[in-house]
Automatic annotation (TrEMBL), chain A:
UniProt keyword annotation of Amino-acid biosynthesis present: no
Transmembrane spans: none
Domain Copper-binding protein MbnP-like: 22-232
Protein's name according to its UniProt entry: Metallo-mystery pair system four-Cys motif protein
Pfam families: MbnP (PF20243)
UniProt signal peptide: 1-18
Length: 278, 374
């Protein structure tokens, strides 16, 4: 009862506080190195062998987005639900437009996170987590709301979602995959899972002004440590790329760029995928 | 809210019974003796209209993005819904690492596929062949809207979907497709084999002498088969409307042993693929043995061609692979169940066990038109 009274009060007060809020749009800039990412064209100089690839898919979930003030205070961005890309604090960044070899059936793209934050003038950093929060990471049949309805990100055999999907076509084989998600999970789809390896990457970028800067997302950085041309031998390696299977040999080198360690909870080296751009 | 609507609807029906179309009769299971009612999720109740729609979709190649493959391509009725191949190929050419599974009595499984601890309903399972990327099976994700539209634009399906969900404004969704497929699969119940007629029907001629001896061995402490291939469906994986499923059971029956920790061939480590725990290498869900005579080749990778070979494997307490990339002594696999151990079985014993397994074939199930293509 008391709680309800309090929340009513808060609701009444909300418009008053909102006057001090402002809209914030974080703009993401997907790339392969220096080149803007696009479906339907080739990118050279990829991976350890400098291979040439055509993109097949590039999508990333982020959540817990916050701005950081000069003094270090973290100010959560209140994400507006939009029934397509943003829901309950979760945002799908969809860089592919379904054209060319990107056979995703999803022509729409989203390169922004839209929300509101108190109108401070000293935001100098941004923070977010790459992935889907544990509570939402169970594949509820086909009923989950957008942006969890992106079928290409359904990790059906794992009962959850792919957090990052970056698939490319090298010249030697039809696909080279990167599917990152939580692994070694217990539980079930109905009740949800607890996972030993969350594989959620927290990204913090300093020297970032939300009004003038964009956030570069470099697909080439994810592929930098692997040979995308290498065809799996079926013994030491059963699939081209990393799908976070136990023992999947490409995974350590493909998770490190996000600051993650394969099959470990400990943080890895600094991430190299996201950076601040003008 | 939903209940209120239902009540009003019932009152309406009562008011003018003669001009209302008769509501669909409640679903009635026709269960063989010894079978409880299957578990059905609350949000996907059975109805004749959904089963009929599901049967159409199950056999329809338009469910695959490139229209080359249906569920039935890998799950053929005459083979108890398997495909006769060691391992199949997906619609775009990917090699699938595991053997296509029988769908006999699939409603009674508590977890689905060879070793996945996470898939606990048919609804969850159906998303795998439809949406998996690697190996890709049907490839619906290549353009989900276009695939769904094929059904929405077809007059026959318009009727079938409307009959299944008369209240839906737009029943043409992935969720509805998955629900219809699941309802159909729940009807795939087989319990009229020679064994069933012998045990439940009192038909003493339904099993040969040899099959009866094989049955005794199967259920004995010599054979030990029944510990794992247990109950009405010959599997420790079991769920019905009245039973809460226990924790999923996965067993290693000694097929491989690639290294000292008991590794199975890469990509086919069984439960290990999900837990990453080396002690789970080679652990698989216990498959049903119903209709087993028509589902060759056997095991998760289709690596045994005949039932005789399977019996020899168990008699030896595992399989030794002498050379090649998978060389190793499965009999020594550290994860192997102690129930799989060398036993003295005469050639007659072995033939009897095979005869028993053959008595589990339910001919009516394999040819019943209600499970066949529309």
């Amino acid at each position: 009862m008391k709680l309800r009274a309090l929340s009513l009060l808060l609701l009444l007060l909300a418009p008053a506080c909102a006057a001090g809020d402002r809209e914030v749009t974080l703009r993401f800039d997907p790339r392969f190195g220096s080149e803007p990412f696009a479906c339907g064209r080739d990118f050279a100089g990829i991976g350890t062998t400098g291979a040439s690839v055509t993109p097949l898919d590039f999508r990333v979930y982020v959540h817990e987005v916050a701005l950081v003030r000069a003094g270090g205070e973290r100010v959560p961005l209140v994400i507006a639900d939009d029934d397509t890309w943003q829901h309950d604090g979760l945002v799908l960044l969809d860089f592919e437009d379904g054209s060319g070899a990107c056979m995703t059936g999803s022509p729409g793209t989203n390169k922004e996170v839209r929300g509101t934050a108190p109108d401070h003038d000293d935001y100098t950093g941004v923070e977010f987590i790459v992935g889907v929060p544990d509570e939402q990471n169970h594949l509820d049949g086909a009923t989950a709301p957008a942006p969890l309805n992106a079928q290409g990100l359904w990790w059906s055999w794992a009962g959850g979602y792919k957090y990052v999907r970056l698939d490319v076509r090298p010249t030697t084989q039809t696909e080279f995959f990167y599917h990152l998600g939580a692994t070694a999970c217990a539980g079930d789809v109905a009740q949800g899972f607890t996972c030993q390896y969350d594989n959620l990457a927290t990204v913090r970028l300093d020297g970032f002004d939300p009004d003038s800067n964009t956030i570069k997302v470099d697909a080439a950085a994810i592929l930098a440590g692997v040979d995308v041309d290498k065809i799996p031998d079926g013994m030491s390696d059963t699939l081209p790329g990393c799908m976070a299977f136990p023992g999947d040999p490409e995974c350590p080198a493909m998770m490190a760029p996000l600051g993650l360690r394969f099959e470990s909870d400990e943080a890895g080296a600094a991430q190299t995928v996201f950076s601040v751009a003008d | 809210m939903r209940r209120v609507v239902a009540v009003c609807f019932a009152m309406l029906l009562g008011a003018c019974p003669e001009d209302q179309a008769p509501a669909e009769a409640p679903w009635e299971w026709q269960l063989p003796p010894g079978f409880p009612e299957p578990f059905v999720p609350e949000d996907d109740p059975m109805s004749a209209a959904k089963v009929e729609l599901g049967r159409h979709i199950f056999y329809d190649e338009r469910l695959s993005y490139n229209e080359t493959m249906a569920c039935a391509t890998c799950h053929e009725q005459a083979r108890a819904f398997t495909d006769g191949k060691p391992t199949p190929i997906g619609s775009t050419g990917h090699a699938i690492p595991r053997n296509s599974m029988s769908l006999t009595n699939v409603a009674f499984q508590s977890v689905y596929t060879w070793a996945n601890p996470k898939l606990s309903t048919l609804e969850e399972q159906a998303l795998v062949p439809m949406f998996a990327d690697f190996p890709l099976e049907l490839g619906v994700q290549q353009d989900t809207d276009a695939v769904v539209r094929r059904f929405a634009d077809d007059p026959e399906y318009q009727e079938l979907f409307a009959a299944a969900w008369p209240e839906d404004d737009d029943p043409f969704t992935v969720e509805r497709i998955v629900q219809a497929l699941s309802s159909f699969q729940r009807t795939l119940i087989s319990g009229d084999s020679g064994y069933d007629r012998f045990i439940y029907g009192g038909d003493t001629t339904a099993m040969s002498e040899s099959a009866q001896r094989g049955m005794a061995l199967f259920f004995s402490e010599t054979g030990e088969c029944y510990h794992c291939h247990a109950g009405a469906n010959f599997s420790t994986s079991f769920r019905s409307a009245g039973t809460e499923p226990g924790p999923p059971d996965f067993q290693n029956n000694g097929l491989y042993n690639l290294d000292e920790s008991g590794a199975y061939p890469p990509g086919n480590g069984g439960l290990y693929e999900f837990t990453g725990d080396p002690r789970d290498q080679g652990k698989f869900r216990v498959p049903t043995l119903r209709n087993i005579a028509v589902t060759a080749p056997y095991m998760h990778d289709g690596s045994m061609a005949t039932l005789a070979e399977v019996i020899d494997h168990y008699a030896a307490g595992g399989r030794e692979t002498v050379d090649g990339p998978f060389a190793g002594d499965g009999r020594q696999n550290p994860n192997k169940s102690p129930l799989v151990r060398q036993v003295e079985l005469s050639p007659q014993d072995r033939a009897d066990l095979v005869a028993f397994l053959e008595s589990l074939t339910d001919e009516a199930f394999l040819s019943d038109p209600k499970f066949g293509p529309p």
